[in-house]
Amino acid sequence: MSDLHLPAGLNYGCIQCGLSCKMFNEVSVEQASRARIEEIDYRALMHPDTRELSFLVKSPSTGEKDVLRRHCGTCVFQREDGLCGIHHAHGFPQKPQTCQDFPYRYAETPAGAYIGLSFACTAVLQNAGPAVSEQRDYLAQNRQRANAVLNFRGAVRLTHRHEISWEAYQLLEEDLHHILNGVGEPLEQRLIAQTVYIDLYAAFLREMRGDSIHRVNRPMPQDFGASGRFPADSGPATDEKALHATRRKYIERDGGAELFRIARKMKGSGGLQRAFIGLITAFRQSLDYKGKRPGRIATTTKIMRHYMTHALKIGNVKLDPLGEPFDYEAFTRIPFDLQPGSPEDELLQRFLDHSLFRKDLLAVESVWLGQRLVLMYVALIRWHAIGKAALLGRPRVDIECLREAIRIVELHYLTHTKIVTLFDKIPSLGMILDALVRKPAFAPSMMEKQL
Ligand code: SF4
Predict the structure, then answer these.
(1) Ligand 1 within 6 A of 77 CB?
(2) Per-residue DSSP letters for 412-440?
(3) What is the DSSP string of 294-334?
(4) Which of its termini does the chain have fewer beta carbons within 10 Å around, N or C?
(5) Which of 22, 80, 95, 104 to mutate to test the pocket of ligand 1 (most atoms within 8 A of CB)?
(6) Could you report the per-residue pLDDT of 32-49, keeping only the tens digit for each?
(7) Ligand 1: residue whose CA is nearest its atom 8
(8) What φ, ψ does residue 151 adopt, rounded to 5°?
(9) pLDDT tens-place string over residues 180-208
(10) Mean pLDDT of the chain
């Protein structure tokens, strides 16, 4: 069990809010879960309109595996009050495995399993219940049977061209934690400093591996075989040495003063943030259609129109999960200055720290991209928190608004949500997004408060 890593300082105990069901479009039901449901009087727990039907259907997406039947947009076992009928009548262990797995997220790595939590969960957002570290025995058992396990045992890609060893990644993650928890700098500057640090490390690595346009006879990725990337052991120095060199120069030598000096020099643009977040929210909202599924051209046109209206600041801001639109003035009127040590500051810091712990940076093409997406998530959290406060008529972002914003971002925008399906369907949208993320002004723009 020593290879089981649990988050420190996080508590979780299910308070049965019924939200877990919203996390899954399809709840797969393997043989053991099916047998557990069949041993209870499950028909009494199903929606009355469906009691004559099987509780299982073939997956609409794959047509193969068995999934729970849905009725009027929810699982047939979900009660009117939103709670799970099986959990309510027979207890947590009787539920399908997928439902038991929520809100835990299992990530297998060369250093063992990291057990993370979803911040879409009400109990996690409130840090309610016993410490996760006290649930080691249960988690060790559930890890063996969990349906959704992320596998990060392969090579770690620092950038799309460079692989690094797991050991180097762990050192980098330590440094990113260190920068994130640095005192005396606003959160926005700490996140930009993380971006700068990854860029500096990548530059050091490129230089040490000879991946430079100034070198004659330099090795190129095609020399390294089918992967087309510089593997972890290429170049005259190892990636760990490059990381230690970066750490010495930008963290240890002057306590990070130079790193933050570079971060502060980076200038962003509120216009770029508006256009970019407008694009992302339009992506996501295009997935929630009523009636006939819109075609590719209609979807692209709608997204581009949305992008332009945000870029030009026309009309109001519409973020579908919040319901009503709100005015752009809200970004000026309602401050998002989380006071150090306040409950709001503690919650956002806990979420960001935990994102690193649960290995969110490894869930996309490269660590470089993963960290930039974190900046996008923070911008989205800010938009939704301010929107929520505006709609509730509150003068500032309080803990309730922030919890709702983090929940929405976990449910709708992270890489484990259905937003990724859109990039598979319309690759050109992914290319537009990629071009925007690569702009040097991207990081400071995501942290810009003047919109
Ligand atoms: S079985 Fe229960 S927890 Fe699982 S999706 Fe259905 S209602 Fe939700």
Answers:
(1) yes
(2) HTSTTSTHHHHHHH-HHHHHHHHHHHTST
(3) P-HHHHHHHHHHHHHHHHTT-S-B--GGG-S-B-TTHHHHS
(4) N
(5) 95
(6) 999 999 999 999 999 999
(7) 21
(8) -110, 110
(9) 998 789 999 999 999 999 999 999 998 88
(10) 88
